[in-house]
């Protein structure tokens, strides 16, 4: 025996392992069958019988120690390589990013503009905080007229001349005050009304206003334009219906209905089993409105319309609750990934 048990024990304890190669060297020297500890077992036979038991116990204890240290070295090499994981491997493919989606109301607004841009409309905008003149008076709402109450207005308490606009029709006035006909414009925007929030109504929603002023514009132009719109926004077989109605700023006035995009006439609770859904109002611009904006009503005529973007979008995608648009629920928004 070339090495005493005591010496080998010291060597086991002092052995430093800091790489795979050193671990293997350790294994060869102390663990494998041909290691020096293996050799000690081989020497068992030559130990005098009366010492053999004590010898065996010592060699076994040494073997256990060597194995414990071996496991310790394996573990510390592993945790050393874990540290390497803190420094990411920059050559790995990237983790997929979560892109946002186009909001369905935005998609509808964009489609709306696309359709009308191709027939010569531009886009205009006005303020959300509006004065009485632009929101009501210039639009031919007489003072104290009950028509003002059709729209539950948020007024500014300190100055009731100022309100949150109740419709985008106010932008018609701003455009006509500042531009000369011919005018072909679309005005998208947020509007505000004091309404209880439900599946069908909200106190903040969006409208799209349309205005066309030129010489000789007739109701036939209005109808043809809205037919074109309905077929482009929905499908070629979409039907449009005009129902006589009243708005102070148009004469004659109509409500615009389209054939129900949800049940296609079968009857459902969206169209209240009528097969028709209202999408907005329209009419020929009242001569008083033109005059209020300095446009000669004996020379020019025009049509206007106003639609709810939420309503148009709900019909487009079969959305049954208007509150979904503003709740920011990612499960809802994700469904529009492909837009
Ligand atoms: N401003 C109306 C509303 O909010 C909608 C409307 C109706 C707009 C007829 C128009 C129009 O331009 O001609 O209820």
Automatic annotation (TrEMBL):
Domain annotation Aminoacyl-transfer RNA synthetases class-II family profile: ranges: 117-315
Pfam families according to UniProt: Phe_tRNA-synt_N, tRNA-synt_2d
GO cellular component: cytoplasm
Enzyme class: ligase
UniProt-listed Enzyme Commission number(s): 6.1.1.20
Catalytic activity, reaction form: tRNA(Phe) + L-phenylalanine + ATP = L-phenylalanyl-tRNA(Phe) + AMP + diphosphate + H(+)
Cofactor note: Binds 2 magnesium ions per tetramer.
GO molecular function per UniProt: ATP binding; magnesium ion binding; phenylalanine-tRNA ligase activity; tRNA binding
Cofactor(s), by name: Mg(2+)
Signal peptide per UniProt: none
Subcellular location: Cytoplasm
Binding site for Mg(2+): 251
InterPro entries, per database record: aa-tRNA-synth_II, aa-tRNA-synth_II/BPL/LPL, Phe-tRNA-synth_IIc_asu, Phe-tRNA_ligase_II_N, Phe_tRNA_ligase_alpha1_bac, Phenylalanyl-tRNA_Synthase, tRNA-bd_arm
Major localization class: cytoplasm
Family: Belongs to the class-II aminoacyl-tRNA synthetase family. Phe-tRNA synthetase alpha subunit type 1 subfamily.
Subunit-level organization: Tetramer of two alpha and two beta subunits.
NCBIfam families: pheS
The protein's name in its UniProt record: Phenylalanine--tRNA ligase alpha subunit
Gene that this polypeptide is encoded by: pheS
């Amino acid at each position: 025996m070339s090495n005493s048990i005591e010496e080998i024990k010291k060597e086991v304890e002092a052995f430093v392992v800091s790489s795979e190669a050193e671990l293997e060297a350790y294994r060869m020297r102390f663990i494998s069958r041909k290691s020096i500890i293996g050799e000690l077992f081989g020497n068992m036979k030559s130990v005098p019988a009366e010492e053999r038991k004590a010898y065996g116990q010592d060699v076994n204890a040494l073997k256990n120690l060597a194995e414990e240290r071996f496991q310790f070295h394996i573990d510390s090499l592993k945790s050393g390589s874990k540290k390497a994981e803190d420094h990411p491997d920059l050559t790995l493919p990237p983790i997929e990013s979560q892109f946002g989606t186009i909001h369905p109301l935005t998609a509808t607004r964009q489609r709306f503009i696309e359709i009308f841009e191709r027939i010569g409309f531009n886009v205009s905008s006005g303020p959300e905080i509006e004065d009485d003149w632009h929101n009501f008076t210039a639009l031919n709402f007489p003072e104290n007229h009950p028509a003002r109450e059709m729209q539950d207005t948020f007024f500014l308490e300190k100055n009731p001349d100022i309100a949150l606009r109740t419709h985008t029709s106010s932008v018609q006035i701003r455009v006509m005050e500042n531009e000369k006909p011919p005018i072909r414009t679309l005005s998208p925007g947020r509007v505000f009304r004091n309404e209880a929030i439900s599946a069908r109504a909200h106190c903040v929603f969006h409208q799209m206003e349309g205005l066309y002023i030129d010489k000789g514009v007739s109701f036939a132009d209005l109808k043809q334009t809205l037919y074109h719109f309905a077929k482009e926004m929905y499908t070629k077989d979409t039907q449009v219906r005009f129902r006589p109605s009243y708005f102070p700023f148009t004469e004659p006035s109509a409500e615009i209905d389209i054939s129900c995009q949800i049940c296609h006439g079968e009857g459902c609770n969206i169209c209240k089993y009528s097969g028709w859904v209202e999408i907005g109002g329209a009419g020929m611009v009242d001569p008083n409105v033109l005059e209020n904006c300095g446009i000669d009503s004996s020379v020019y005529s025009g049509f206007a319309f106003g639609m709810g973007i939420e309503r148009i979008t709900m019909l487009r995608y079969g959305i049954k609750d208007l509150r979904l648009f503003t709740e920011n629920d990612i499960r809802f928004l994700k469904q529009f990934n492909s837009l």
